[in-house]
Amino acid sequence: xxxxxxxxxxxxFLSSLSFYLIPSWYSILGKVYRSVFVKDEDIGAxxxxxxxxxxxxxxxxxxxxxxxxxxxxxxxxxLFTVSLTAVAVWxxxxxxxxxxxxxxxxxxHILEVDAASDLKAIKKAYKTxxxxxxxxxxxxxxxxxxxxxxxxxxxEALTDPAAKDNYEKYGNPDGKQSLQVSIGLPSFLLDTDNRxxxxxxxxxxxxxVIPFCVxxxxxxxxxxxxxxxxxDTYAWYHxxxxxxxxxxxxxxxxxxxxxxxxxxLIKNESDRNSVSKSMRAVRAYMQKPKYNxxxxxxxxxxxxxxxxxxxxxxxxxxxxxLDRMLRQSSTLIDAMIxxxxxxxxxxxxxxxxxxxxxxxxxxxxxxxxLLQLPHFTETEAEHxxxxxxxxxxxxxxxxxxxxxxxxxxxxxxxxDVQRDDVLRCCRLLPRLEVTTGVYVDxxxxxxxxxxxxCTVRVTLKRKPNAASKDDDNVKRSAGGGKSGSxxxxxxxxxxxxxxxxxxxxxxxxxxxxxxxxxAPKSPPPTVSSRARxxxxxxxxxxxxxxxxxxxxxxxxxxxxxxxxxxTSLTCTCSAIPTSGSTPVALSSWRPSIRPCCQSTRSTRTTxxxxxxxxxxxx
Length: 618
Known about the structure:
The protein has 5 domains: 6-96; 107-181, Helix Hairpins (Orthogonal Bundle); 192-221; 227-373, CATH 1.10.3380.10; 430-601, Sandwich (Immunoglobulin-like). The longest helix has 32 residues, at 6-37. A 5-stranded antiparallel beta sheet has the order 4-3-5-6-7, covered by helices on one side. The protein has a two-stranded antiparallel sheet with strand order 1-2. Helix 16 (329-343) runs antiparallel to helix 17 (346-361). The chain is an alpha+beta fold. The chain has 21 helices and 7 strands.
């Protein structure tokens, strides 16, 4: 008969607790270690210019010290883990104290006599124990019945010669035995006095707690789709984004995301007054709202306050809500672009990319791209675009980067530190060498025939400014460290890594393919990234045109020369199929590189980064 073994239950509970305690303590100690010994590069708290000093301090404060540990989730987990650890220690001490022993047959221990006791003492103990545990005196008690059988067996092992000989040889009065199994649960579960309590606990756990946990997990996880974006957010984007969506309406679309509906809900009159005060500062720059719901209005006001650099008007609570919205901006804007891809809306996707650039740099549609430079205002931007010397005039950031350091305008009223900040920021933006090529993959014949899958490869090789070779700050920001390359964005409260959008579309404004390529964390001399776009050549005698656009994800550039990242490649190939055996005439893939939009943006890639895009003609 299987028995409930108290010692085995201790081992069972210890092993069960270890499944939670080991990973929990690993997580707790890891978080404590990171809050004390984390490196600045690992959390993106790098100050490459004085404009980033305040941002670096905020990031360090949020990632280090007691503030990181004194959070509700961390403290609850710590309290629960410490409590379970105390239980585990008690079980460990109990096992090693000798109060519990492994479930082995020991007749002296069962009869509660000494190993040196004589036969008279053994008979007396047997009589006492058998009377105590007799089933007639303990009706409906399985534990007493099992104990009575063990007492009889122990007496037999000590009095019967054959049984005693078997016990001395094999440890059991019945002779050599096979493996015996006991139940690793405490014996008090069989006590009749505890029957109702045990049943009640069983019902609560099996019928209440476990189903509730499963329901809660399923209800929470079922709200989120790809990239941990809520399904309601995707539905909202599908409803509001179309091929005619303008960039000015995107803040309102972003504000209606399901992730922000709880935090932007106006709860009292004080919240309403705070939002109204902030709205008065940005109302003139907002497009006429499409929705008057308080959640959309509040989020729209917060986003415009950030884009217009008027966050000083926000209350601490609204600033906290804005930070939460900006923290998820990268993921949600990527979701907006994914929706545009499904709708094949090329212009709207480009507007979403430009909106992401504006959010990162805290600039809006009519702002000069020169305001991305530290300490620059409208006065310096206007001064830089004027002058008699054509080589020194710069109306955009791309043109300003081409001007020699000694001839750059807008620095006359700056201190030496501010001037160095501007020049260092210019060196953070690398030049690119763009090369293109077209071929048919895995084909020995270099000709292109009807129905072939063509591969168009665009390779971007980063060429850092020569002046940055000895600049440690520039070196660190160009891809060193675990965090990869960081964008220079002092007004964005969180570290932002570089990324690239490569878009292939048709002249009719339809998306063929669009993908985001992140900067490698540890760039080798040349880095390539490839994506296969399923397109086939068509049976047509007309000229086929495809527009390939390369855009940064976080920096406004407005560039036109080939060495800039923000360019539009309008690729034209002649396709004159005459028969199935005649190759399509590819005069050569000669992309014309020109500005892709009014404002094109990017994040820096690694010192040497290449990306390739595979496309074909149809």
